[in-house]
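Give me the fold.
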Amino acid sequence: MRTRQKIVASLATLALALSLSGCLDADKISTVSYDAKADAFTVLRLYINIHGDQPEDAKNLLAMYANRDHILPVELWSILGEKGIMRMSDGVREVDLGKATMDVGEIKPPFDISTLENKPGKFFANTDGNICYYHQITIPGAAMDKMVAWAQDEAQKQIAKLAADEIDSRKLGGKRVSWDHQRKILQGGIRGLPEADRERQGEGETMLISAMDDASLQLLADAAKKNAFTLSRKAGVFRAAAKISPDDAREIKATLAMVRAELQNQIEGGAGMTREDIGAAMIVDALDVTTAADGRVEAGADIAKLAPLVSKLQVAAIKAPDATKADDYKRIADGVSGAKPPMDDEMTPAQALEKFNKGGLKSNPSEKPVTAGEGLGDAK
């Protein structure tokens, strides 16, 4: 099932990911909406069944809750960040969301985050009595454009390195793999075939890159100068475009068609499909992929179309508490209850998602604001 999980994870890159690290943890949900009139994106972070395995975890959680006006719970310059961002009067520092500690040194964001609107939420208890929390961040279009430009630069560097490594490998006798071979790898993962029955990925083999011809690799190895890979945004539509050989462009389109068909077959057959698999199939089906005669491949994603699909997947992914963590849930619930912070007694995880999708999830700043960083320790 490992390959299938990688496929599902790769389809979630439009939604900035967050995971609590260290002692505090939770079931986490992320989704995004786009307001065309304001040209702004709002990201929702929803933490369900918050739990901790250390005596000080409830205290740490409450310290971060008191600082919620200052914390952006996402590491914007990392695809899978485990830290939040603390905006302070004298700069920006990173916060370990699992331990309520701040990095000692100030960091310099790769793009301006001063215009991001922080919309802290409230604690609430789900039907099991476990503590949950929601938080929103609104990103103006102009700020998003800076993020896209930075992401394009980073992607160009990574793609160029992968292509250059493949070129060097072939110079030393490495062989190009076939597109059929890579499609079989993906197919085996989607079907959940036993390891013994799957097409195996070779040592040093990179999906897509290792199947490309020399012409494509030369273009991608100089991705920035030749504009071989670009990211762009127009309103709520994001597009990724790559300039490769016409033959490889056709193969990539055929690969995506195969993935779509396989996922759809799994849904219709109901054989071993998880809710995440079904959601992935919905998202893949919503992507707009085109190819041009000169080899240019474009993949477009419209947030207005994708967001409802992602939300359906997220609602389906809300899990029952893990019975083995009953003490960890209780530790947090007892600690929060004893501190008596403002709670939203009417909220549930599903309602938070529903309100967010309708634009009605309100911000709840702290009633007793604290100085940024108050109560948080320094990371060692």
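The longest helix spans residues 141-171.
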